[in-house]
Design goal:
alpha/beta, TIM Barrel, Immunoglobulin-like, globular, binds zinc ion
């Protein structure tokens, strides 16, 4: 009898543990730039829309500080269900004027990635006094490079190694200026324009930095911490209905990705991308990949998926998004995004 009880308790514990782990090993990071009615639509939400987003988060999600979420995932500690992190890039003054008061009302923590040498230097940027005040009121600050440059851009005649050293130096110097002004160094770096390549992400990682990008997707303990996805929440992405689907998304556990380097050159011909999915919660035949709103052809071999990526003819930032419904949790989707960064024919990068 006693043995039976032990086995029942063990079975129940296992069942509970497996229910909990799949969802609590997950979080979503939102990315905002401007919160204003008068800034470019593509990178802005109005203060009214921002309030609507925060109200939705208050009713449906757990908003936690970035540091707490990253540390939990790295240490494989559980997170509350439906954890969300709020981040901003660029350090615009309208965050202080329009977003900060709303965030304070909801008592939400948030993180701003800034270009430290620009703080207080131009009128559309935060100044250090505002940064310090916000830091005392639930905001944390992190690194977005010194000058918001296209980091993949090389100087004329610059070797690969010199480019990598110069870029890393830029990031280290930005981190120092931040630390001198706010008194701590998170070593969190958001790639300007979300652009990175294999070498840069390997380098920042080897220097102890965690990288944040702008391709979409949830994050989990099995994510690539040198380029974590974030969901842009501005412009057309600000619609609360479509945003809600993303806020409920799960990180697709993808391995053996055939595509290693997101930096590609034109001409980029149609080609096959393969990857494997490691979870019983996804039926591989239900994975769909999209490029420019078009469903891509795919073929399956057990858990390995081959997707036909269309040729890319224009420079700029492109992505293939793959989604699949969770079988255990109706209405929730796994998400995986593969970005492509393409320079112009003469090696320039578009804003
Ligand atoms: Zn930026």
């Amino acid at each position: 009898m006693r043995k039976n009880w032990i086995s029942i308790v063990a079975t129940l514990t296992c069942a509970l543990f497996s229910i909990n782990t799949w969802a609590t090993d997950n979080a979503v990071i939102l990315l905002y730039h401007h919160v204003s009615d008068t800034t470019p639509k593509l990178t802005s939400v109005s203060p009214d829309t921002f309030r609507q987003h925060m109200q939705y988060l208050a009713e449906n999600h757990n908003v936690l500080p970035l540091k707490q979420v990253i540390e939990a995932l790295q240490n494989k500690n559980p997170l509350p269900e439906k954890t969300v992190v709020i981040t901003f890039d660029d350090g615009y003054a309208n965050i202080y004027n329009n977003a900060h008061p709303i965030l304070r009302e909801f008592a939400f923590p948030y993180t701003i990635f800034v270009n430290p040498p620009l703080i207080g230097e131009v009128d559309y940027q935060l100044d250090w006094q505002q940064v310090k005040l916000m830091a005392m009121q639930n905001a944390s600050f992190a690194n977005h490079g010194k000058q918001h440059a296209h980091m993949l851009s090389k100087h004329v005649g610059e070797s690969q190694q010199d480019w990598l050293n110069r870029t890393m130096q830029d990031i280290e110097e930005a981190e120092k200026i931040l630390e001198q002004n706010i008194g701590y160094s998170l070593k969190y770096f958001a790639y300007p324009y979300g652009e990175f390549d294999e070498q840069l992400k390997t380098r920042i990682s080897s220097q102890g930095f965690i990288g944040f990008a702008q391709h979409s997707g949830a994050i989990a303990s099995y994510s690539d911490f040198s380029a974590l996805p974030r969901y842009p929440a501005a412009g057309v992405y600000g619609n609360i209905k479509t945003l809600a689907v993303k806020l409920n998304s799960l990180a697709m556990p993808v391995t053996d990705i055939s595509f290693k380097d997101p930096k590609v050159e034109l001409p980029f011909q149609q080609q096959i991308m393969t990857f494997s999915v490691k979870t019983a919660d996804i039926a591989p035949q239900q994975i769909n990949c999209f490029q420019n709103g078009q469903v891509l052809n795919k073929s399956l071999m057990q858990n390995s998926i081959s997707v036909e990526i269309n040729s890319i003819t224009q420079p700029g930032r492109h992505r293939v998004n793959c989604t699949a419904p969770s079988m255990r949790n109706k209405g929730r989707f796994y998400w995986y995004s593969q970005p492509f960064f393409v320079p112009t024919a003469d090696g320039n990068w578009l804003d």
